[in-house]
Amino acid sequence: MSDAPLATEAPRDVIHSAPPRAAESDFAVRLRANSEYVVIPLLALAIAAGLFAIFLLALGKSPADFIFYVWRGGFGTSFSLQNTLQRSAPLILTALAVAIPARIGLIMIGGEGALVLGGFASAALAIPMLGHVPPIPTLIVMGLFAMAVGGFWVGIAGYLRYARGVNETISSLLLTYIGIAIMNFFVEGALRDLTDPNKPSTKPLGKAYMIGTIPGTEVHWGLVFGLALCVGLYFLMSRTTFGFAARVTGGNFRAALAQGLPVGRLIVACSAIAGACAGLAGFFEVAAIQGRANASLAAGYGFTGILVSFLARHNPLVIPVVAILFGGLVASGGLIQRRMDLPDATVLVLQGLIFVVLLTSETLYGRFPIFKPRGERDRT
Amino acid sequence: MMHDAVLTVLVAMLGGAIRVSTPFMFVALGECLTEKSGRVNLGLEGTLVLGAMVAYAFSYHTGSPWVGVLFAGVAGSFLGAMHGTICGLPRVNDVAVGISMMLFGTGVAFFFGKPYIQPEAPRLASIPLGFWSHSPNLKSALQVNPLFFVGILIAIALAWSLRNTRWGLVVRTVGDSAAAARAMGISVNWVRFLTTTVGGFFAGVGGAFLSLSYPGSWNQGLSSGQGLMAVALVIFARWNPLRCVAAALLFGGAGAIGPSLQSVGITQGYYFFNAAPYILTLAIMIATSSAKHSARDMPGELSMAK
Question: How far B54 CA lies from chain A's nearest CA (Å)?
């Protein structure tokens, strides 16, 4: 199967190709049109890698070493691969938090806030339940609560966009800062675990209430949920009436209104789904990694998720691949820092560079005749 | 007793408003100029952070904080030029590029800024405008940084030249109707490139204030959203440089609530008051936006609220 992008972007060339002059099979036409969406992002990745190599050379560091340590720290050994998968789980979920609103035409970047607030809310809800309710029901309630809180949080940005025309990019980022402040307010105040003098945190869940790992691995269940959500949301967005209506709204807002689509409800629903994904990521960070809520929740997964989603062209089925790639990059950060004597922000520079080059590459779409069906090529 | 405490808080808030508002003012003026030409630069948060780092580093190495301010502006205009060039290409989304520039600028600043977290760099000296007063509180509140006045002068100059000069007319035309500007033979991309570059310079100088005056040190948590709030502030100020100054003072006051209360020993809810500027920004955006029609005085070419 090709990495077929969803219908909002693909059919532009396909529809017009109705009678191809030289007979190309339907499959060949589609392959040709869709490969553009694979080749150009890969080209952008290659250019960003080249620029980053020049950057490293200018600093007197070896790009070959860098690649070697990313491989070693992210993919090379069984331990590092599991570490990578561990880190790609929240990236998958926060990327979905960008991809779903993107389908309806919103640039929503509030994943970090929904992750932090969802994780914190689930940890706070667990405190009175510990020791009274068995672990499994506690974890289920925690997970659902994290999704509800995350969904509510990003849903606000969606609602404000529809009801008041507030720019969703700015409001979702503001909500992120507010969400982190809310967590700090409680974690350093009312809900602080006073038995731990080191870092202000909520009361730890304790081993019995932590989510275990997938049998035979060190990877927690968040990865499975992330993959399942990717498949589920792909079907929701491309194979259901809801997804179709959302894509129509994203493609042409006025047309959707004229058709009588429930635009407001669609926007809020897509935003809430996005927030729920990020909230779930927060729950897994709390229940599988940290064991409690504290400032470590705001580790930047929400921001890397934005890049993952853009690189996957907001396609839920491609997100896991890109998330694992970046999970490996994040996982190898420590090794690069130690062995190459580079600051920990090196990974941030590379991510920023990839993001900038990727968005610049948007300008290349439709410029290469090779991706057009044969009949169309002469016309342009 | 109670009366004194209230007075202390109010005086501290006045001083805080002046101090906290300065970076808001510079970023807002830069964004105002860029948006006047019809483009949004959401990356000014990254510009602010990079400006802060570069200013601190140059002040440390040269011993002159004003050299730091200059190079912060240069670094900012470099990021602005990058944004301006990329967005000049067809089919590129300026909001998305802004997000990427935000991450890029922050990443570069953290990368090169690591060695400067520890050392002490010379700061910008403030002007003691409170010399006439006997109250030490008022004296410290009226320690005003010269950059505050520079910002006000820039605002006046910008407001005047947007309204009265040929260049101002060109920028406004490009911002209101690119088609009309093209018909007049103006290069739309070139004008937007220049406004984004100059806007980046202002934002970089705003960053220099953060590291060289208040809070007056360089660390990775120096800016948390000021650059972004300033973008929202421009909407509130309805794309008028002078109103940007007033709005920046209002935001500065909101940002100063937490530290002022702390100065009289009220530390409860510190994090809540820290969030006050964000909540205020959001509230203002809700109050000034409308789903039915675009904001008043908004440049017609802006992609933001279309």
Answer: 16
Full-model pTM: 0.91
Domain housing B60? 2-123+141-288
A362 contact residues in B (CB cutoff 8 A): 89, 91-93
Please tell me which of the candidates B96, B110, B304 has its beta carbon nearest to residue A359.
B96
Residues 140-159 of A with CB under 8 A from B: none
Q: CB–CB of A343 and B108 under 8 A?
A: no
With cut-offs at 50, 70 and 90, classify the pLDDT of residue A12. very low
Angle between helices A346-360 and A333-340 (to 10 degrees): 120
* B267, part of any domain: yes
Average pLDDT, chain B: 90
Q: Residue B153 falls within a domain, yes or no?
A: yes
Q: Which domains does chain A have, with CATH numbers?
A: 1-61+345-380 (no CATH), 87-341 (1.10.3470)
Q: How far is A219 from chain B (nearest CA, A)?
A: 28
Q: Which residues of A touch B99 (CB under 8 A)?
A: 107, 109, 169, 306, 355
Domain with residue B78: its CATH number is 1.10.3470
Does A254 lie at the interface with B, CB-CB under 8 angstroms? no
Q: Which of A16-30, A63-77, B201-215 has the lowest mean pLDDT?
A: A16-30
**Three-class secondary structure assignment of chain B:** CHHHHHHHHHHHHHHHHHHHHHHHHHHHHHHHHHHHCCCCCCCHHHHHHHHHHHHHHHHHHHCCHHHHHHHHHHHHHHHHHHHHHHHCCCCCCHHHHHHHHHHHHHHHHHHHHHHHCCCCCCCCCCEECCCCCCCHHHHHHCEECHHHHHHHHHHHHHHHHHHHCHHHHHHHHHHHCHHHHHHCCCCHHHHHHHHHHHHHHHHHHHHHHHHHCCCCCCCCCCCCCHHHHHHHHHHHCCCCHHHHHHHHHHHHHHHHHHHHHHHCCCCCCHHHHHCHHHHHHHHHHHHHCCCCCCCCCCCCCCCCCC
Q: Which chain B residues are within 8 Å of A109, Cβ to Cβ? A: 99
Q: Domain total for chain B?
A: 1
The first and second tokens of residue A19, run together, are 């009678």
> Hey, what's the torsion of the CAs at A123, A126, A130, A133, to 10 degrees?
-150
User: Helix B226-236 crosses helix B2-36 at what angle (to 10 degrees)?
Assistant: 80
- Restricting to A residues 297-356, those with a Cβ less than 8 Å away from any Cβ of B are 303, 306-307, 310, 343-346, 348-353, 355-356
Portion 52-91 of A in contact with B at CB < 8 A: none
pLDDT band at A22 (very low <50, low <70, confident <90, very high): low
How far is the alpha carbon of A220 from chain B, nearest alpha carbon, in Å?
29
CA distance B85 to B89: 7
Predicted ipTM of the assembly = 0.93
Is residue B294 one of the residues assigned to a domain? no
A357 pLDDT above the threshold of 60: yes
Between B229 and B157, the higher pLDDT residue: B157
Does residue B29 carry a pLDDT above 80? yes
